Amino acid sequence: MALFKSDVSPASPIAEQPTIGLIGMGSMGRMYAKCFSEAGWKKIVVCDLPDKFEALQASYVGVSGITVLRDGHLVSRTSDFIMYSVEAEFIDSVVAQYGPSTKYGAVVAGQTSVKAPEKAAFEKYLPEDVHIVSCHSLHGPTVSPLGQPLVLIKHRAPDWALTLVENILRSFGSRYVYLSYEDHDIVTANTQAVTHAAFLSMGTAWASSLSYPWEHGYYVGGIETVKVNIMLRIYSNQWHVYAGLAILNPYARLQIDQFAKSATEIYKLMLAGEAGEAPLRERLHKARDAVFGGEEGGKQRRPIFLSEDILDRFSLAKTHSLGAPDESPNSPANSHLALLAMVDCWAHLAIQPLHHLDLAATPVFRMWIGVAEYLFRSPARLDSAIRAALYDPSHRSDDLEFVVAARGWSQCVSFGSFELYRGRFEETKAFFQPRFEEATKLGGAMIQAIMDDAKKQA
Prior knowledge:
Strands 3-2-1-4-5-6-7-8 form an eight-stranded mixed β-sheet, sandwiched between helices. Mean pLDDT is 87; it is low at 295-299 and 319-330. The chain has 458 residues and is an alpha/beta fold. The chain has helices at 27-39, 53-59, 72-78, 91-98, 116-125, 159-169, 181-208, 222-235, 240-248, 250-271, 274-292, 308-311, 317-320, 337-348, 357-360, 363-376, 379-391, 396-415, 418-432, 436-457; strands spanning 20-23, 44-47, 66-68, 81-84, 107-110, 131-137, 149-156, 175-178. The relative contact order is 0.11. It folds into two domains: 14-178, Rossmann fold; 183-457, no CATH class. It catalyses: prephenate + NADP(+) = 3-(4-hydroxyphenyl)pyruvate + CO2 + NADPH. Pathway: Amino-acid biosynthesis; L-tyrosine biosynthesis; (4-hydroxyphenyl)pyruvate from prephenate (NADP(+) route): step 1/1.
């Protein structure tokens, strides 16, 4: 029997509203609390680690609808809808601690980026008389949830429990995507694993070269603007945002390994020069056909990528360049090894990323597949990249650093060590730290420009 009316909303009398509980108040937990409060929900209880209680309590003084509790036991005992917003690495231990205190008949969700350990923890530690309807907002805490995909997973629950979760989250303005736990991990791996690996490898390569890439005139065009801004955006986040998906999602680990192999094998063909031209062209044309449907682009659909003129508005080179113009005709052609390796990786694993574009694309994935499409669907651009890879040594040292970085990240993930992952991430992050504030603003504006453009063309 439903415990709440099917049309319950923030406008309902307070006695008829569910108590919404958040366990974990990191960046995403705070974003959810803010959205719930601004929507007008009246009974929101939150908690973080006990030693953060006083500071958390002080930060929510006077915030409408939100009460800070000391621990997850109090949140679990009093809440009708409970969301665990904790790192995937710790979901088992946190649910083991607080799950048994869950209120009878409550609906429980998790906001983790990888669902296999979440599912295991919920099934192991939650009482049989509570329901599981999980979720995942496929964007970061600094991106508006409006129009973004929000995955809902009805795992162990009646229809009314799913309706309740839909009602609670409706104020986000997100687009619901209904998946199983297993399908969620497949889709998120297909849309995020290689994307993250590419940008992490770029950052590590540039940091190893002790080079801000936009300052020497090589990375100041449209595609380069996307590379630099999104790389900085990723490293300005917390390491655990990416570590959980990479290490705990078995589909992601497979893809990251293949990405490193693709980068290595393409680089070896690059070093062969003229002898490597025929096999490199054949390999990349096969990858293009497998992922994008052939030279003519397969299905007729509007490209994702904006014009280079628009993207150049977001170039860091405009304020930090050492004199190189934003579109210098003397800038050397780029092999775009990261893009070549990514599409080659997808082709080898028979992944069709465009199938997930409308289903569950994150803003970063939308941009990255957009620039891949921009490169691979243009015979002239792809030919230029191949020729640069084979015959222009200008980027060769950067490409070498990229291959080393990609293999290093793959090995790190294969070891399954969060501490090793954190160390690699933080070391690169420290190098780019001085540029995060400006890059975050530019990257956010660039993402918004692409989202606005997509809405205009819808």
